[in-house]
Amino acid sequence: FAAAAHLVREDSAGIAVTSIVSSLLGNDAGKVAAGNGEMLLPMHPLQAQALMLDPAVRALMDSGQIRYLGPAGPVFTATSSVRTVYSDDAAWMPKFSLPVRITNSKRVNRRHELEAGVAVARLFERAGIDMFEPRLGFLHDSAYVTLDFFGQAESGFEVIFRQNPFRGRAGDPVITVSALTAEPRPGHSSLFETIVRRVAQDQDISVRQACRRWFECYLDCALDPLVKLYDRFGVALEAHQQNSLLDLSQQGLPSRYFYRDSQGFYLSNSFRARWYGLVPEVVQIRSLFFDDRDIRERLSYYLIINQIFSVIARAGHDGLASEAELLAILRARLKKLAQELTGAGGEFATSLLDKPHITAKANLAIRLGDVDELAEGGSAIYTHFPNPLSRVGLFVAAEQAHAIAS
């Protein structure tokens, strides 16, 4: 689409949005052009179809304020999140608004999410968080563009531009944790089992030893840096399986963890004054800030239950190592973090070791209740399970013989 500039709302933490959009056209840059006083907006085909059925959009098209330009640009492929797309030649991954409900929520970009992505990208750059830990990387949603008309909070034209650190690396083994833990096709091994057995063969060690070594490397980049990030900067991540990517280029062993999703940053209220001095607009986005008690509960679910417990469950199901020994490794790592860290991260690790119950998200209840947790007035539902990491929970875990993953 091309739209009259007075309708356009955009922001970026770095490169100008016009430059980002132009770069996404690739070899078609000379074929598609905005007119005087216009700006180009890329859209997902499904998003474009839905927009052209909107009477308000049709009226603006009839008046010449919006023009439909048709397909253009290189081939993009959907990532596991469906609405974010990737091209090996592009420096940016557009994240579109789709009128489709996926895992509890209609997948549209809300205005506060657009602003949060840019504000967090600025905060991380100015506070030095991006360079805090070499084993931790971020795919920032650092720019956006949309149209503003008729006083609507969202027009449907919202597009987020996510950084693509994997440009030119299409063949590299960077994999979402959800792909590793996914149930294999009948008669086939899981991706995780395939990788661990290859590590065992390459290093001439037993499968059990390879699994333990892989898990230790995984905790080095997926647990320790995230807990230390929360401890030092008061920033926690909604690090569930689909938001988590692992670089397995070091002979199949995890060497770096990447986090994506501007919807999933939790900033501690205790750091609010500090961040105001660096990025004043951050403190105006109320959806970013939480009390530490709430952060601990969400981090317990997303990082521990959803992500790490799922890896443990996959290993146990595939017969690579017992869940009990991997839980023991995780518990020892948390104990070390609890002893070393003195801030919010240390308190988080201690709570996982001491509390008999652990917080989990009740996804089935959310779905049965037809709750859109991302919509205004919507919220997730949480429950509690026996904690297999605590002193009391260890006995429960032994009786159940498996980790609780969701």
Describe the 3D structure.
This protein is of the alpha+beta class and 406 residues long. The chain folds into two domains: 2-163, no CATH class; 174-400, Transferase(Phosphotransferase), domain 1 (Orthogonal Bundle). 39% of the residues lie in helices and 18% in strands. It is built from 14 helices and 20 strands. The chain has helices spanning 17-24, 45-51, 55-62, 111-127, 177-181, 191-203, 207-222, 224-233, 272-278, 292-317, 323-340, 344-354, 363-368, 393-400, and strands at residues 2-4, 8-12, 38-40, 66-67, 77-78, 85-86, 92-96, 101-102, 105-106, 136-139, 141-147, 159-163, 174-176, 235-237, 244-247, 256-260, 265-268, 289-290, 357-361, 382-386. The strands form seven sheets. Strands 2-11-12-7 form a four-stranded antiparallel β-sheet. The chain has a four-stranded mixed β-sheet with strand order 10-16-15-13. β5 and β6 form a beta hairpin. The longest helix is centred in the C-terminal third of the chain and has 26 residues, at 292-317. The protein is globular, with a radius of gyration of 22 Å. The relative contact order is 0.11. The model is unreliable at 395-399 (pLDDT under 50).
